[in-house]
Design goal:
It is a single chain. The protein has 107 residues and is α/β, with parallel strands linked by helices. The chain contains five helices and five strands. The protein has a five-stranded parallel β-sheet with strand order 1-5-4-2-3. It is globular and about 30 Å long.
Length: 107
């Protein structure tokens, strides 16, 4: 069961515009290079423990993967890396695209 609250793609998009959210892509670099949400920081799940995850004060981290499965299965590990609030993008990148929100291609 998830210890992190889910947030819908349209709400993430709004939070990114206002600067209150910090989006973190936990997919692998090759997946991120194929397509990613503009502005998302890449911190692959495979490198999570070694990563220096810093979130500015007053901002909330939002983790995402392709479909939400990896974030859901690893929510405790993800939450442990953040000093502050953290959320999961419900449905991941797929839900983002289904909402008609922009994606970038290439690194």
């Amino acid at each position: 069961m998830s210890t992190l609250t889910k947030i819908k793609a349209v709400d993430v998009a709004e939070g990114l515009k206002t600067g209150r959210l910090h989006l973190i892509d936990i997919r692998e670099p090759d997946e991120h290079a194929r397509e990613h949400i503009p502005g998302a920081a890449l911190i692959p799940l495979s490198q999570l423990e070694a990563a220096d995850v810093k979130i500015e004060a007053g901002r909330t981290a939002v983790f995402h993967c392709k479909s939400g499965m990896r974030t859901e299965m690893n929510c405790d590990r993800l939450a442990a890396r953040i000093d502050g609030d953290a959320l999961i993008l419900e449905g991941g990148l797929e839900a983002w695209k289904q909402a008609g929100l922009p994606v970038a291609r290439g690194s």
